[in-house]
């Protein structure tokens, strides 16, 4: 290893260690790591700019602005009350409904957008029921990543894989979509034993929920109607963005601008609602991972991964599935997937059937995000929303549930892939 590679690895490990232990604020840790890479001349300012995934940042900012306007209509409280009444105020059915809502929406929109929508809903209903929202938040984090795995547009790695492998929306539904159905079923069974049997709500609170009138939760009916229309249009634009010739980030920013124009809200108040610490955390994290990529560490990892399989399709498929899952629990999956794509294309050019390997990469990279609190964008965003509302989730608290559940979901996917392709 070169000196630059050693320095980049040390900076990365120190940054991750600070985040994992919680001794330093996530944003401070990631930005400090980024600054160290510049000070040690591993990255230039231009390299830092190149390392940041601008599309992801724009989607985050755009959807945060959009949600900040929409929530003033009262639509989240309306949906939360409606869902709670359908579940008869019982805490476990409410959790199941929110898990399913999150998973489905994450496939149709993207998982970050979805958690921005369901987070306020969850906090609203748990506040009414006087129950701890943390179990609900944790299950929704996992549901968002599972749902995002199901479709071409649900998670950025899928967009990258679909583009490189020429795979369609339907291809994803028939492969990763089917796999995630089994993952959701197994996940719900596990969540019942982890949380379902322990959830308790006073009869008084249930009666209070059932007496609520969801229509009274609507603060601005005109804004709510506008919001519903914009949400539907955003969903359609995300689904058909290729045909429309626009990027997902363009859709998010455009939707935010439209809502700021027609929503009648104070721009200063809406802009202040954006989770700026989260945005800066992502920028710093992209730069820290970009340092690893610049000095060739991620490429070395990918090359080593391919070489140990000796070209055996089944072995390669399983190795990529499991390694992608473990790595994506701690590393941002976008640069990792970006590094593996050329490797898989090279294997394809040598005559190997790589179709199963694309699905292994998608399932591993996307579901691996459930392993830790920093494993995916949705995790950071939703845990940030929870913290800002007085319910912090620590790295260790999430890890005890998320990592075993991630391992179980990858085991389910292993069986699926072996039956499907072996």
TrEMBL record:
The lineage of its organism: Bacteria, Bacillati, Bacillota, Clostridia, Lachnospirales. It comes from the Bacteria. Residues 18-364 form the Citrate transporter-like domain. The chain crosses the membrane at residues 6-21, 51-70, 91-109, 172-195, 229-262, 274-292, 313-345, 357-382, 403-421. This is ArsB/NhaD family transporter. CDD domains: P_permease (cd01116). It comes from Anaerostipes amylophilus. Signal peptide: none annotated. Keywords: Cell membrane, Membrane, Transmembrane, Transmembrane helix, Transport. Belongs to the CitM (TC 2.A.11) transporter family. It is a multi-pass membrane protein. It is found in: Cell membrane.
